[in-house]
């Protein structure tokens, strides 16, 4: 607690804040406006698009309904983990009660207005990293891209003058912990639900892009029908 309230310039947290935020002072106005928008909205929108990309990719790749259900459950967990991490952060912020850096330090370049809530832990960093780690569990390549966006998000929050580096690091840790530690429980709860959705004739396409007949066969274990003559040809080849 005492370390978080340190306002001295000798504090590495404060020094790094000034170093990163100082880049905004030397940057042209258009770049600061771009970083402000990207850090506030753009990167989170990009992460949501990666969630949709992972859903679409895994949905097409699944060979069975069971595979499709487990993949869909993993993708759905990413935004759910982010939402849960934000809820966990509410009491943390209230307990720590750390003020925004521009309220305690002079000369910062603040790129967004209206930030009056507490600073530790960063909601943006928490949300972005929780979705990134959740996606990594579902799809390694897309998950790495999402984690990369989360790191950029954290840098932007410091650049914008609205968070200390430790706010961002704390957000990364919280988002990672929630996404990883609760992933097995989420899979156990969400996979049966995704399986039921995938077996539905109306909304099954959300989980598995197979025909309703194929989904029904997969669900009850009926093998696919063979083309005429395929069986005899197989026997002839075996002979």
Keywords:
single chain; mainly alpha; Vanadium-containing Chloroperoxidase, domain 1; disordered C terminus
The run of helices and strands is: HHHHHHHHHH
Mean pLDDT metric: 83
Q: Gap between N and C termini, in Å?
A: 79 Å
Q: How much β-strand is present in the residues?
A: under 5%
**Uncertain spans, ≥5 residues at pLDDT below 50?**
1-9, 224-239
The number of distinct structural domains comes to 1
Q: Based on CA inertia axes, which overall geometry fits? A: elongated
SS class: mainly alpha
Instruction: Could you tell me the CATH topology label.
Output: Vanadium-containing Chloroperoxidase, domain 1
Question: What is the C-level CATH assignment?
Answer: Mainly Alpha
Number of helices: 10
Task: Please describe what this structure looks like.
This protein has 239 residues and is mostly helical. The protein has one domain: Up-down Bundle (Vanadium-containing Chloroperoxidase, domain 1). It is 72% helix and 0% strand. The chain is built from ten helices and no strands. Helix 3 crosses helix 8 and helix 5 packs parallel to helix 7.
